[in-house]
Give the backbone structure.
Amino acid sequence: MEGIYHDTDLEDSQVFEEKPVVRVDDIPSSKDFSSLPVNQALEAEEKIRLYSQMLRIRRFEERSLRAYQQGHIGGFLHLYIGQEAVAVGSVSVMSGDDHIITAYRDHGHAIAVGMDMDECMAELFGKRTGCSKGKGGSMHFFAPDKNFWGGHGIVAGQTPLGLGIAYALKHRKTKGACLCFMGDGATNQGAFYESLNLASLWKLPVIYIIENNGYSMGTAEARHSAGEPLARRGDAFDVNWSVHHGHDLYEVRAAIKDALDLARENSSPSVLEIVTYRYRGHSVADPDQTYRSKEEIEEYKKNKDPINLFRNKIVSEGVLTEETALQLDQSAKDEAEASAEFALASPFPEISELMDDVYWETDNPDESLSSGQMFFESSR
Amino acid sequence: MAEITYREALNQALSEEISRDPNVVLMGEEVGQFKGSYKVSEGLLEKFGPEKIVDTPISEAAFSGLAVGAAMMGMRPVVEFMFWSFCYVAFDQIFNNAASVRFMSGGLIHVPIVFRGPANGGTNVGATHSHTPENFAANTPGLKVICPSTPADAKGMMKAAIRDNDPVCVMENTILYNLKGEVPDDDDFVIPLGKARLACEGSDLSIIAHGRSVQVALQVAETLHDKHNISVEVLDLRSIRPLDLEAILQTVRKTNRVLLVEENKPFCGVDAQIAYLIQEHAFDHLDAPVKRVSAIDVPQAYSKVLENFQIPNHDRVLAKAMELL
């Protein structure tokens, strides 16, 4: 896949013009990924589960958008709709010793690792029953018991953290790896390059997955990045890199599985660029009318929707019937609706709880080693 | 008890804690082969090997963040900054990630990490290398901040910091590295964070200080005693967050006159908060307004003459003390 959309035909006079980027998903995949062993090994039941996971993420987010519009959710809400195959495909090839961390568009990864809709929706509502007790919000979901380390709000801020997770695994001689997700915009932050250098220098089992949805907020790839493909930046550090289609769940699984094997067996890092697309604005506050056309969005929905494509695939494989597909969809909608009801009915945190979860020590006074005043304006 | 330097005291603390807990590693620029830019880690690479004493490239954002990620997984990294001034290129990792992850996860994660290194002026290295960010760190809920001023405190508090389950910023001082003092050689000599130390007792004036300013305060106390027969009490804060408010109020109630001394720049410096707390809790005990001596409020100067005046020196502190008496 390397260099697949490298464009070298620019005249000097065009240097300051917006240059065309041929996205990898404009080029149809030439491979049949369903025949690879990693996908051949999938039981029918597992395929249906993967399909259902993507649906659940989409219906959850659609419901959360309604809740936002109804005023139940504040702040930012960065929707993952359109990108579901990336998180679901990636998580589906992880083993128990593998870990995952991502940026602020984190609902898909959270549900893919098995967090339930109730705790996620309640977090969006700022409720005490939320996964972070209403203290993190949309961008900061965590489930360390499921090896999910967040949910991080600063672009590329999680890239050194993912490195550290990989470092800890290697230090403890655990045969695992860390999948560190990031957006295309994060590839222009210094922390990412510093992390790539250390990943390669110290041979750490970290896999940087650039979910390239084409836009860094409202800035198209052609306007934010020189030197496509983005994954090629791994080259400078001798890090393996490749580019993949993100609308094909089978292809995502194959790519991540290969990178995981390299990381687990050789402790080698990788950079995978997975080209995908988001249907909604950067966040729901983005009116999404200034930087791309409605036609572009419609075109993607029509031809490259990851959920439709996977449904068609497994229907044609004889794994899924249209009837079951409808049932699964209804059940995902019902689950999302129930999560909104749960969130609405849940209590807000008490003001006194504001002081909890800041320091381990103040949360565990019986084991405290220090004395002195820790807080200087308290809600208690 | 042995008389050793502040540098050797830190070295002992690191060595003992690395031996004690397999999760502890030391990482930073030049900590291994080079033996530490200020030789704090001398001999540790030979003793513990490169898996525990980790030389990093000049890449603070990556290795600070890496250490935070490893701490989230249960390791206890000690990150050395050659100068605390260099933490500014790793700001996001310390002030967002290390400080906030526990809160943002509703307490699911904690970050047992130590960030350490010198944070001081007075060595003619100019503005970029002379920052004293204890006020930034203390302004960030989730972080703890300590500024040991003696060899014994350097050892006991560093050990406490490494055993602590929260992120602790240890602000050392290059000028103190050669300071000698009695230090217990007990493996479990741990000084709890949040306990101030009465550096000398007195009755006419309290000088409250942290870091190297404590040493300056003690010199001024001596001058005031010898030349003016004035009895000065010096309180060493040791720990900025948690803060020993009780000890502060106790000395204020005793002498009724307070001078605050720090190397921090004045605006929103640590002592701005201390002054506020004193007037809030001990207003009726004050016989004079609280006074401060901090660094002169410009970027740190290079020239020896300028910088020696800029940081709180004996004469500036003495002059301000006289205003209070």
Q: What stands out?
A: The longest strand of chain A covers residues 206-212.
